[in-house]
Amino acid sequence: MSDLSSAGTAVGGAPVGGDGPTTDAPGSGGQERSASLWADARRQLMRDPVFVIAFLYILVVGSMAAFPKLWTSQDPRACNTDRSRISPSWEHPFGFDILGCDYYSHAIYGAWPSMVIAIMATGGIVVFGGVMGMLAGYYGGWVDAIISRAMDIVLSLPFLLGAIVFLTVIKRQNIWTLTLVLFLLAWPTVARITRGSVISSKDLDYVHAAKAVGARNSRLMFRHILPNAVAPMMVYATIVLGSFVAAEATLTFLGVGLQPPAQSWGIMISVHQVYFLEDPWLLLFPCGLLVGTVLSFILMGDALRDALDPKFR
Amino acid sequence: MGRYVIRRLLQFIPTVLGTMFLLHYLTSLAIQFSGNPVRALFGDRTPPPALLQAVTERLGYDDPCLGTRGDPCLFRPAETGSGLFGSGYELGLFFDRLANIFFRFDFGINLRQREVTDLVADAIPFTLKLLVIAILFEAIVGIAAGVLAGLRNGSFTDYLVKISTVFVISVPIFVLGLVVREFVGVKFGNVLRGQDWIPDVISAGMFSPGFKADYPWASLIIPGMVLGATSLAVTARLTRTSIMENIRADYVRTAKAKGLATKRVIGVHTLRNSLIPVITFLGVDIGAAMAGAVVTETIFNVPGIGRLVTMSARTGESSVVIGVVTMLVLVVLIANLLVDLLYAVLDPRIRYE
Amino acid sequence: MSTDVNVKLDALPGLDPKALPLQVKNLQVEFRTRNGIAHAVNGVSFDVRAGETRAILGESGCGKSVTAQAIMGILDSPPGFVTGGEILYRGVDLLKLPESERRKVRANRIAMIFQDALSALNPVFTVGFQLGELFRKHRGMSRQDAKARSVELLDLVKIPAAKQRVNDYPHQFSGGMRQRVMIAMALALDPEVLIADEPTTALDVTVQAQIMALLAELQRERNMALVLITHDMGVVADVADRISVMYAGRVIEEAGVHEIYASPAHPYTKGLLESIPRLDLKGQELSAIKGLPPALTNIPPGCAFNPRCRYAQDVCKQDPAPALFQVSPSRTAACHFWKEVKGDE
């Protein structure tokens, strides 16, 4: 019962949408129909200014994470306490932090852990959750019973609480453990979505037809059923990227995520929260970057859902 | 109805056991990989061996299965006799913990050997107050906004609700909390506190930057609103889509054709159906809000369960974290069960399945 | 049954008890959508006498359900708007009444039965609540009295064990029983006009016959005017007195049921009749009307049927659309060549 929306709110960030990804996006029809669905969706997305802006923003943040040198020549670890909390200037657009390190380069390098954790964890849950959901939906019976029960159990553990326990006890709070805990606690949502669309497309006429001419199980699954599950999965994956960025920052803020001297937006926020009144920019820059990233992912997911759901056209 | 309740109750037992096992396995794995968490607590200092020994034993961290990586700690070799059904094994650490929780209501101790249940009992009144405020806030404002937006689809109100909810949802709750604390609690609060004519309940209580023991309700209003903010946005969106779906439903048309007043068509026939998913969401959200309280209480310094978790996590006092979280998870599970039963009351189609 | 007449309704300004219970004159309805304006109803006129059954026949999307909703005043608006015409109940133009007055006409004087009873009944209220609501809100009855009346109604539509079933929810009834509940709901306040929008389409053939028989019986008992909206030529032949055939938002032929079946005067009606499989023509190819009905956003100029018509000539492709020609004193058809169509048999 405590499904995606509560997991999202527990993270303190992204909801993963109250109205949830639609599982019935692509209708019946063969490959041709789905090809045009994607083409239509792409055309509609490119005309949607919200999507384009969000996409460009993510490109910018993504390039910060992948090629920080492109954005700054400063070293975020070259610190000098003499320069502590100097206001932004032309040379140093974000000023200096409490330890006298260049804040702009810290913000640029801080994009990396968020993005890497979000991408790795999302990749993990899409692959693992997708396979689990596929197996449960396709075979039904006891396979479904076992997988569904496992999903229920994991989902009934509030995300934030589970993550805090695991990270506290393991005491090694780095990119890998954060990714692991996000993956462990979030895969059932993807599995549930996939299972839903597999079950609904399993009974479509063209699948029966393929079965009747003797297609093998693996062929049925990958050629005929999986394409129908891809659209809702993609919508969810886009939104969940935003949730994971928020989750990483939240856990870091609570003190169970990344630890200084690592660079991350969550650390920037938690270290400087008490200087808000004197030097609000210390808080506003990382908060702005973080919120912009989460918002962009969510808006992209929403736009994607509208584009892939023929009902909205 | 009876069959549904019984089936749901029967499902509840494996879910509780499963979730308890998941929690147990997560912590056991972590201990197996990083050693006795009690020792780490003392940092560089060497703990008095007697104390270390006592705490470790009390918490069951001396169980040999915690030395084997990946061991789920379900069974251990029997020390006396032939064990379960002559297999040579008896029930292991997991079942010890279950017995402690369900038979002795024992959720562990902290470093000073205080019961976790005591710590929670001290903290819970604050968390409950916070939750009441949060849930009321999100239910009233969220449903009102959602209904307004849903009924006037495409209007200015609708766009306002749609856009503002996306923004609220995208701001991680800790960022929102920080900004609200600094702007509303500190900056705006300081202005209010400078005015003599404003009563203290408002200036020092409601608009304080954190929890004040003198104003246990007033100073929790703003933290409660922060806690409820994200769910409020979700509630509003859910209500909006639900209203939009139902307002075009055939039975609403029937209600109009029956010559009923618009007030009744909307207030009874549309709302009754639209609010079913919303109310179930709010029910489930009580559990989620308990988890969210971890963040809110930390930011606003509320001495509730959430801050207990963060403080213990920061000092590495893992036994407290495990104990409190176990307790919270049980509460969440019970809340979910109640919501499922409530769902059946609200929707007759489920009841007679 | 009808001792408790709603007093306020008799005070409707201009009410003439001798006028026809329902008369629709030149009704126009359009839907303003993002893809343009759809002219769903373009000047529909018909009337119905007490005790008479008027069938409105047409394919889906021809505007017949929209006409019904416009008469009831329950169009989804926006996007639907009534842009012209009159809907007269005993001489009172309903379109000119304020909403508060019009509301009292619904269910009291003009009631409606919907196609799919499962979705037309509210899933979360008992059948008794939904029936009783009518008595409570329109007649000010207490809950108990209203419930007693609901049981009577369920008895009236021959639902067995009415006393128990009144507490059941819609999904606990079978399809046929649900449609009986709908009929009970429509008849609750003793209306003078009953509009039945495809009342049997969602049902099995055997159940269809039972429901139609029940409707006919109740109509006879109460001397009700019945407007039967359907696409089923078979149903029409059984129960209708007069028929209006609709195509692309217009009435294209209007006649008594025997006249139409004997000699249709519009090529569309003729095509419809020829597409019914007939045992005596077994072995011959079934003739179907070619093509599809036009999109309501893009109705062809002239006669809307001309692209599919085997009689079409140049005059049919030019505006204005053919007016209704008086085929006989009691019937009309909107075709320039009605004589050929009729004599062609």
Strand content of chain B: under 5%
CATH fold-level topology of the largest domain in chain B: MetI-like fold
Number of strand elements of chain A = 0
If classified by CATH, what would the architecture of the domain at 111-312 in chain A be? Orthogonal Bundle
The geometry of chain B reads as flat
Quote the CATH topology of the domain at 111-312 in chain A.
MetI-like fold
Total number of domains of chain B: 2
Mean pLDDT across all amino acids of chain A: 79
Tally of helical runs of chain B: 14
Helix content of chain A: over 70%
Task: Give the terminus-to-terminus CA distance of chain B.
Answer: 9 Å
Walk me through what this model shows.
The complex is a heterotrimer of chains A (313), B (353) and C (345). Chain A starts with a helix and ends in a 5-residue tail after the last helix. Helix content of chain A is 71%, strand content 0%. Mean pLDDT of chain A is 79; it is low at 1-31. Chain A is elongated, with a radius of gyration of 22 Å. In chain A, α10 runs parallel beside α11. Chain A has helices at 4-11, 31-47, 49-66, 68-71, 103-139, 141-155, 159-170, 175-202, 205-212, 217-254, 265-272, 281-308. Chain A is an all-alpha fold. Chain B has 2 domains: 2-103, no CATH class; 116-346, MetI-like fold (Orthogonal Bundle). Chain B has 14 helices and 2 strands. In chain B, strands 1-2 form a two-stranded antiparallel sheet. Chain C folds into 2 domains: 2-240, 3-Layer(aba) Sandwich (Rossmann fold), CATH 3.40.50.300; 270-343, no CATH class. Chain C has helices at residues 7-10, 64-72, 99-105, 117-120, 127-139, 143-156, 162-165, 175-187, 205-222, 233-239, 257-262, 267-274, 338-343; strands spanning 22-33, 36-48, 53-57, 80-89, 92-93, 110-113, 193-197, 225-230, 242-247, 250-256, 325-328, 331-333. Chain C has 345 residues and is α/β, with parallel strands linked by helices. Chain C has an 8-stranded mixed β-sheet, sandwiched between helices. A 4-stranded antiparallel β-sheet of chain C has the order 2-1-4-5, covered by helices on one side. Chain C is 33% helix and 22% strand. Chain B: It holds the Pfam family BPD_transp_1. Chain B: Its main location: membrane. Chain B: Keywords: Cell membrane, Membrane, Transmembrane, Transmembrane helix, Transport.
